[in-house]
Amino acid sequence: MNGIVSVYKESGMTSFDVVAKIRRLFNVSKCGHLGTLDPMAEGVLPILTGYATRFADYLSSVDKEYIAEFKLGERSQSYDNTSEIEKVSDKIVSVEDLKNTFSSLTGKISLKVPAYSAKKINGVRAYKLARKGEIEDAGQKEMEIYSIDLLNYEYPFGIMKVSCGKGTYIRSIINTIGERLETGALMSGLIRSANGVFKSNKSYKISQLEQLSEENKLSQAVIPVYDVLEWGRVVIKDSFIKHIKNGVSPNKDSFLFFPIEHKGSNFFIMDNKGNLLAAAERCESSDHPLKLNIVIN
């Protein structure tokens, strides 16, 4: 089975746990996830199956949305409540000060990466070094934060919504909030509510997928990659299908249909029955307007 399954990962599971369960449920060997979620976090975790794994680079560069709970007055090396917690302050922060701090953290900003993260330092995962007490953080990383909205606040706890780019650590944002307020802050809960076009309210829990499996309806949960990526779709003549499968880029006479109005550089190549044959990029050649970069066998 080939496509994308929008899974709602529940707290306590690792992202790899979810991949393993999807691999078993769908009986596929090729399987991977888009955007790791920490075990304590829950929410949207798109899983790629079959040939959809070959489109991972195109599908992963998307914006995210998170709902995060934070606690003021404390801090930890992991920037959340999963490691030893240190009391910092009893200072009660006003809503105005919180919102001003949120505003100061929007845009492209360099923040500390948590020591307890999967980032590699000289080939070693940061969390392994942190467990040995060898690092306090995993260095700096530029993150793009579009907006931070305060949804609820009752000291010392608050809930915020964060819209951000790929690779943003919500724990880093919360830790920085605590530093700027001089109170300390840590993350006490996290939900990824959106991963690109995939939303939490339209994602499947593993138990729901297991139920669909029992009813032989698992295919209902699979979204074709060509329904997610906004690429042009060309239809190839039957006589040229064999050439496509052999990796030969199509010439100008091989198309049944070419979307002239599509201004993007990427295209899906389909047969006249709607089956995906390949993916290609636009090129300048008048004889061969598309260059194959993925062939589906």
Automatic annotation (TrEMBL):
Record's function text: Responsible for synthesis of pseudouridine from uracil-55 in the psi GC loop of transfer RNAs.
GO BP of this protein: mRNA pseudouridine synthesis; tRNA pseudouridine synthesis
Matches recorded under InterPro entries: PsdUridine_synth_cat_dom_sf, PsdUridine_synth_N, tRNA_psdUridine_synth_TruB
PANTHER family membership: PSEUDOURIDYLATE SYNTHASE TRUB1, TRNA-PSEUDOURIDINE SYNTHASE
Reactions this protein catalyses: uridine(55) in tRNA = pseudouridine(55) in tRNA
EC number(s) on file: 5.4.99.25
Keyword Hydrolase carried by entry: no
Protein name: tRNA pseudouridine synthase B
UniProt cross-references to Pfam families, sorted A to Z: TruB_N (PF01509)
Active site: D38
Family matches, as Gene3D superfamilies: Pseudouridine synthase
NCBIfam families: TruB
Naturally occurring in which organism (per UniProt): Mucispirillum schaedleri ASF457
Family: Belongs to the pseudouridine synthase TruB family. Type 1 subfamily.
EC main group: isomerase
GO MF annotations in UniProt: RNA binding; tRNA pseudouridine(55) synthase activity
Keywords assigned by UniProt, alphabetized: Isomerase, tRNA processing
